[in-house]
Amino acid sequence: MADIQNPMPDLSDYDWLEFVSYVWKTENEGFTYAYENYSPDFESTDMQALAADMGRFRTYFIDNVDKVEQWATAIGWEAAVNLHNDHVDESRQRDQDACLWGVRCADGYVVHERSEADRDAFIARSRGNSSYRQPAALLHRDVPGGDWTDSPLPASV
């Protein structure tokens, strides 16, 4: 990632942008709703522990929220939005890479699932429901971000 001019040296650039994303979510959703539905996914264990406690995280948020607008103003709002969007893409890719189970759909789209049970539940929901993508093959990988191994779709799951 490019030098993002992170104003909080105690945070990695990833965690800073995760905080930025959370702050921007709170502007529309409010702190509590955003915390309950979109809590930040920090990579630092210290930040994970802080974010796990809503009261402590609220204090941290209040103490640091102004830094987000100051940062965006300093680097320019367009650059800030672009960095945020790049971070969201990276975060989504990390989430997908962490999934060891999936389904290749008839249209080629890959549905990523965290567990075999979640994958099978997706297949059960999608069968016979034309509003869902239709499954074509089972997918599994042995390591996060590794290559998929395809297996034939069973008649029933």
Properties at a glance:
157 residues; alpha+beta; 6 helices
The count of DSSP E runs of length 2 or more, i.e. the number of strands, is 4
Order of helices and strands: HHHHHEEHEE
Which blocks of ≥5 consecutive residues have pLDDT under 50? none
Shape: elongated
Strand content: 5-15%
Determine the mean pLDDT. Answer: 93
Continuous helix count: 6
The main sheet orders its strands as: 2-1-3-4
Query: Helicity, in percent?
Result: 55-70%
Rg (CA only): 19 Å
- Give the distance, in angstroms, between the N- and C-terminal Cα atoms: 42 Å
Please identify the structural class as seen in this structure. Answer: alpha+beta
Largest sheet: 4 strands, antiparallel
In short:
The chain has helices spanning 13-29, 31-38, 45-51, 54-75, 77-98, 116-126; strands at residues 101-105, 110-113, 135-140, 149-152. With 157 residues, the chain is of the alpha+beta class.
